Amino acid sequence: MKPEALEFSKRGQRLIGQEMFKVLERAKKIERLGQHVYHLELGNSCFPPPVEVIQTTIDALANGHVGYVPSAGHPNLRAALAEHYTEHGRPWVTENCFVISPANLLINQFLDMTCNDGDTVVLFTPGFPTYFAAAKYIGLNVKTIALESENGYHLTKLAIDQAVTQKPKAILINSANNPTGAVYTQSSLEYLIQQCEQHGIWVLSDETYAELCYRWPYWSLSAVDYSRLIVMSSFSKSYAIPGYRVGYALAHPFVASKLNLSCSTLFSCLPSFTQEGCVAALQVGETYLEEVGDYFSNMTEQCAEMINQSQILTCSVPESAFYLFIDIQKTKLSDHEFCQRLLQEQQTALTPGSSFGPGLESYVRASVSGEKEEVLEGIKRLVSFALQSKDSGPWLPSASSQLSKVGHAV
In CATH terms, is domain 51-284 a member of 3.40.190.10? Predict the structure, then answer.
C-alpha cells in the first residue's frame, strides 16, 4: 500500500513533531557510517545527575516499587514539591496543586483542556517548537508576537498588549526562554497576568529552565494566585535526567484535578521509581544547581564570544540555560540549508531557527550543553563553515555522496 492511500484523521494529518529530533535522526545515520558528529542540536546536559537521584531510583527498583501510583503523581513527590514551593514563598500551595506528567506532554494537555477547535492561542517568538506542534495538532489558530533581539528578546508591555488584542483563549510564555536564554522581568509578568485576568485568558508559564538562571534575577509566576494559570516545569534539564521524563504542573486545585483526569486517560501514571528519584533531587539542595549554573554561565559566554568574534555570525549572551540563538543572515544561507550543509561538511548538528517561529529563517540554535571539548570543537566548526560559506558559490548536493543522501533523510 502506498503511504498516500492511508487515511488518517485530521488531527493525524496535522502531526509535525520536533525538528531537533529529525536532526538527531540524520546525525545518527551519519554516525552509523563511521563519522563522528558534534551534537549541538539537543539540550542534553553533560553533567551526571546527583548521585542521590540515581541511588534512590536503584533502591526503589530493588525494593520492587514498580506498581501503579496515583495518576496525579507519587504522593511523596507532590508533597516534596509543595514543601519546596512553600519554602520559596508560596504559602498557598498544597500537594493538591501539583500534577506529575512529562513536561512536553503538559503543553499538549494544557491546550487540549482549555481550547476548542479554531480557538486562538498566542505564542511569543522565538518559542519552543512543541508549542507550535501541539497547537497545530489540536487545530488552534496560532498568532505569534515577535520579541526583539535588540533588547535581548525580553517580554515587553507592548508585546503583551499586542497579544491581548488578538483575543486569545490562551497565551503561552517561556521564561527562562528556550532558545534565547532571556529571563523575563517581574514587572512584565505581573502586567501579563493583570491583562489576562481582565480578559479571562488562560496562561501556561513554562519554567523548565528556572533553576538554570545566572545573569538575571528570576521571578516565577508561581507567586501569583490566578485560577486560569498553569505553571509547568521539569526535572530533565536542572538535574540532567531527561530520560526520566518527569515534569510537573502547579495549578489551582480545580485545574489540577482536571489535569489529573487527563493523565489518567493518556498514560495512567508515571513510574514510581523515577518519581522517587525526583524526590531525592529536591533534597539535594542548592549546591548541585549552583555548580551547574556556574558552568553553563561560563560556557555560554565563551561560546558566544567565539561566535561574535567571527564578524559574520552574531548572538546575544543568554541569561539562562545552555542555548545560543545565532543570526546567520550574513552567510546568505537559509536556516535549513545552513544546518544541512554544516552537518554534511563539518559533521556538526544544529537546529534550524524557523523551528522556533515564523520569520526566523536567518537563525539557528546551538546547544552548548554537551561535553566541553565536543562543544568547543562544534562551535569552531560552525564558525569555520560560516566564514567559508560567505565566499562559496551556490550549493549543489552530490547525488553520489552517501553523506549527502544521509543529510537529506528525514
Answer: no
